[in-house]
Amino acid sequence: MRRKRGRPLDGWLIVDKPSGMTSTQVVGYARRVFDAQKVGHGGTLDPLATGLLPLAFGTATKTVPYVMDGTKIYRFTLRLGESRDSDDADGAVTGQSDVRPTDAQLRAALPALTGNIMQVPPVFSALKVAGERAYDMARDGRPPELPPRPARVDRFELVERLDADTAVFEVESGKGVYMRALARDVALACGALGHIIALRRLRVGPFTESDAIMLDKLAPNDDKAPASPDLLCPVGTALADIPALALTEEEATSLCHGRPLGLVGLMGRIPQTDASGTVRVMEGERVLGIGRLEDGWLRPVRIL
């Protein structure tokens, strides 16, 4: 059997992504610097964007969906006056407008773009249309007609007006919300045109800027030595904002073998959960994985 290249590392690395790199390039760099077998990321950032890009090593990749489902906070700068085919500064100009909305007009447009909305994604996106990536079709001069998709925007605020042409917004949202589309749509709602010129992600699930490390801080002084595993956060940190349910050693063994546990025996320990009934299953300080409360049972969903 062929041995996988690299070290078997487990944990999370929260990178402060620089502008100009793709998320895939950051993953490749981290894999090389750490000499790691397996690395993935928890939510793509556009090349123009900066900020939090959580990288999952080894068994942490099992928890990526829970990070991507978590709340995200972004700050972006809208440039008024031009539309771009990519809805950001990297694209080609597709239209111009002399309309410059007032602060009051911008704020008045925000409620319609907040809550559970339908959003038309940018044509330069990774969505697939008949088996092709939308961005590949757009680059070939065949921009697809993308249908509106459900999106959840919890908070959308105008935080600063730099001048008549530029405004800074902060957004708190669920997964799959395109900031470029929000920037485009708030301008359109005011009868103007606009695109993003700066975008930064400030939070992903339980991870914040205080957890992040710059890419240039990863490489050790000795070029031949891999980066230290001490830079990685434990796998379970990705689940920190999911309600915890403590199990005994015997209960933990049963659940880890795939056997559901009756909720009657867990009474007094069951935390308040959202509608999904998802819990972070613990044995002492150790995170065992993810379980779900349903039909009177605690069922294992993902064991780490």
From TrEMBL:
<comment type="function">
    <text>Responsible for synthesis of pseudouridine from uracil-55 in the psi GC loop of transfer RNAs.</text>
</comment>
<dbReference type="InterPro" id="IPR032819">
    <property type="entry name" value="TruB_C"/>
</dbReference>
<feature type="domain" description="tRNA pseudouridylate synthase B C-terminal">
    <location>
        <begin position="180"/>
        <end position="220"/>
    </location>
</feature>
<dbReference type="InterPro" id="IPR002501">
    <property type="entry name" value="PsdUridine_synth_N"/>
</dbReference>
<dbReference type="GO" id="GO:0003723">
    <property type="term" value="F:RNA binding"/>
</dbReference>
<protein>
    <recommendedName>
        <fullName>tRNA pseudouridine synthase B</fullName>
        <ecNumber>5.4.99.25</ecNumber>
    </recommendedName>
</protein>
<comment type="similarity">
    <text>Belongs to the pseudouridine synthase TruB family. Type 1 subfamily.</text>
</comment>
<dbReference type="InterPro" id="IPR015240">
    <property type="entry name" value="tRNA_sdUridine_synth_fam1_C"/>
</dbReference>
<dbReference type="GO" id="GO:0160148">
    <property type="term" value="F:tRNA pseudouridine(55) synthase activity"/>
</dbReference>
<keyword id="KW-0413">Isomerase</keyword>
<dbReference type="GO" id="GO:1990481">
    <property type="term" value="P:mRNA pseudouridine synthesis"/>
</dbReference>
<keyword id="KW-0819">tRNA processing</keyword>
<dbReference type="InterPro" id="IPR036974">
    <property type="entry name" value="PUA_sf"/>
</dbReference>
<dbReference type="InterPro" id="IPR020103">
    <property type="entry name" value="PsdUridine_synth_cat_dom_sf"/>
</dbReference>
<dbReference type="InterPro" id="IPR014780">
    <property type="entry name" value="tRNA_psdUridine_synth_TruB"/>
</dbReference>
<feature type="domain" description="Pseudouridine synthase II N-terminal">
    <location>
        <begin position="31"/>
        <end position="179"/>
    </location>
</feature>
<feature type="active site" description="Nucleophile">
    <location>
        <position position="46"/>
    </location>
</feature>
<dbReference type="Pfam" id="PF01509">
    <property type="entry name" value="TruB_N"/>
</dbReference>
<feature type="domain" description="tRNA pseudouridine synthase II TruB subfamily 1 C-terminal">
    <location>
        <begin position="243"/>
        <end position="304"/>
    </location>
</feature>
<dbReference type="GO" id="GO:0031119">
    <property type="term" value="P:tRNA pseudouridine synthesis"/>
</dbReference>
<dbReference type="Pfam" id="PF16198">
    <property type="entry name" value="TruB_C_2"/>
</dbReference>
<dbReference type="Pfam" id="PF09157">
    <property type="entry name" value="TruB-C_2"/>
</dbReference>
